[in-house]
Amino acid sequence: MQTVDVYWSFRSPYSYLATPGLLEMRDNYDVAVNLRVVLPIAVRAPELLFNPQNANRTRYILTDWWRRAEYLGMPHAWPSPDPIVQDMQTMEIAEEQPYIYRLSSLGVEAQRQGLGIDFAARVSSLIWGGTEAWHQGDHMAKAAQGVGLDLQQMESAIEDGNHLQEIDENQAALDAIGGWGVPSMVFREELFFGQDR
Fold this sequence. Notes:
By secondary structure, the protein is of the alpha+beta class. It has one domain: Glutaredoxin. Helices cover about 50% and strands about 10% of the residues. The chain is built from eight helices and four strands, in the order βαβαααααααββ. Helix 1 links the parallel strand 1 and strand 2 (about 30-35).
């Protein structure tokens, strides 16, 4: 069996849009999907995208992902709450980030349990598919349960685990192969960015 490494972020609408294709590839071909969660550009390298003096890139992404979701027939809405606390007018990113580190660590834990892309697909469809207050109530627990995971057990595992260290290692691996954005796929040591191929 071949393996494709998928560098993926819970704040990326394009990561969300890529998940059905990744699941289809896994289910229809002899390919394992190894989810390698990274933190979003907003916290790891905000200067690459969130420059208030040049907001054109950000505005384009906000328009383009919506268009792409409609083309794919996927539910789409800007997250409420956004996984990154950020003022989208000024591009200022808050120092306190209550969602993304938990989400990313849960993604790592799901991959450790062999269900990374399944969990990512379910949770990203909550976040990017229009579920209000996706972080409250039993939304996350049901998403985990829907793929055979136990959210309480996952929360316990990430509490004292080295999940954030693994996220840093994933980022270093993406940097080493010459990537920067997500989703990025690496197959047989060749990098494919986005949904280009």
